[in-house]
Amino acid sequence: MGTTQLETVPEPKYWHLRTVLSEALESEFSVGEILPNERDLAARFGVARATLRQALEQLELEGRLQRRRGVGTTVAPPRVGVAVGTEQHAWPGAGEDGWQATDSALAVPPATVADALVTGAEDPVHIVRRSRVTHGQPVAAELLYVPQSSVPDLSAIDAPSGAARARAVLRELQRLELEGQESAVELGSARADEARELDRLTGAPVLVVTTRYLAHGRTAALSVATYRADTCRLTFGDTGGVEIHQDPERRAS
Amino acid sequence: MGTTQLETVPEPKYWHLRTVLSEALESEFSVGEILPNERDLAARFGVARATLRQALEQLELEGRLQRRRGVGTTVAPPRVGVAVGTEQHAWPGAGEDGWQATDSALAVPPATVADALVTGAEDPVHIVRRSRVTHGQPVAAELLYVPQSSVPDLSAIDAPSGAARARAVLRELQRLELEGQESAVELGSARADEARELDRLTGAPVLVVTTRYLAHGRTAALSVATYRADTCRLTFGDTGGVEIHQDPERRAS
DNA sequence: CAGTGGTCTAGACCACAAT
DNA sequence: TTGTGGTCTAGACCACTGT
């Protein structure tokens, strides 16, 4: 990476900088390599640190860089593809899918969740916490809402919370016949608790996947999962086929 | 919205500010309403304009606000759900789906696209441009790559480009038997041309949906569509059911 | 401890839309 | 021309990680 001077172009400095850095990442750096620190980089390009940071922010958003306070900025590996909408129509917790149930308790869900489920606004539901790990990295945190009516036989369980209870709820869910599921994906920012679980800072961009599981013509469960937007590529497929890879710059012809 | 003073809390000012503004949006503003300008807001909360802007940025990312240069900051309507992965297994361009084919030409695709398709690296493919409009707002811009082998009968077409040619490519595509499709969603930032088409600034956050269409055991077409991340909620479903709505704050129990 | 990225300030000027 | 959001600067200090 030379001491390139920025030309006077009709585009913002930080955007041009992003392009220059992007090319440098491809040609002069390898995955995991650590970049010079922000103060040095800014000086090298003759811009204020804030401007340099704006460029780095873009690249981090695009999954090209990873920044960690107290450590430095490193070149990120390509995004990992995580399957979220396979055609197998499987209940959460079926098979080995990388999810780990961590906790569960009976509580009153947020109003919008109660709406989507058929329960009354004050009816408590089972809330199952799960986290998903891929390649040793945490990629998602989920809250799964299960109305008591979906798992009537669970009354036998006496544990008020804990991982074992979470697994019990999931096990009971398998007994229902799954008729279908539908998901929605949108951009959000990590709440403090989610951020902690995903090893990111509060406010980090996440992809929020809301999935509704249908059985008996009703919504039998509702899942709200937040995925790290910087490291994940969510795959929805009905073929189980090969990975589709995306060019860092999505260059058009 | 009062002249609330920020308390000293162990969280960043901009994050606290985001929360305060978020609550104000729910209780004191209605959709489309215009907020006080940034300088006034910053003064009112006793912070620098840059800090106030950091909070607004978060809220815009979450689809709560819309900012337009020269105009102001307005309260955004709830995100619109746009279907991207229905179970009907339909080719692009089938039926009325909100897409509009605008142009098409024969050109050599980017290397990564050529990889996904089976074509050689230098083989030109049909590139179809489409844009998607919902509720009068542009929500997505797409590039559809179709190998010549997928539409052999198209050779009869002599127009080198144009909307009519684009429609012809799509029409030919319908004749193939679609075996399946698989999609991936990831976060990206709008290139200059995409940004123009989506009525946003360069670098605006977008959801990039890459879809592979399968026929005859091969990839018959590849679509790369960029959706406005601020206004869109992408839905993948196999039930055609009701909308799932998401609480502005995604409050956990 | 030294070094990193994260937050924050108080300004300045620019690009754009409406008047 | 006026007022808006967008860009940029040159600092300061904070929070965290490693040694």
UniProtKB/TrEMBL annotation, chains A, B:
Record's protein name: GntR family transcriptional regulator
Record Pfam families: GntR, UTRA
Residue ranges occupied by any HTH gntR-type domain in the UniProt entry: 11-78
Record keyword Magnesium present: no
Organism whose genome encodes this protein: Streptomyces nigra
InterPro entries: Bact_HTH_transcr_reg (IPR050679), Chorismate_lyase_/UTRA_dom_sf (IPR028978), Tscrpt_reg_HTH_GntR (IPR000524), UTRA (IPR011663), WH-like_DNA-bd_sf (IPR036388), WH_DNA-bd_sf (IPR036390)
DNA-binding found in the keyword field: yes
PANTHER family hit by this protein: GNTR-FAMILY TRANSCRIPTIONAL REGULATOR (PTHR44846:SF17), MANNOSYL-D-GLYCERATE TRANSPORT/METABOLISM SYSTEM REPRESSOR MNGR-RELATED (PTHR44846)
TM segment ranges: none
Domain of life according to the entry: Bacteria
Alphabetized SMART domains for the sequence: HTH_GNTR, UTRA
Xref: CDD domains: WHTH_GntR (cd07377)
Keywords carried by this UniProt record: DNA-binding, Transcription, Transcription regulation
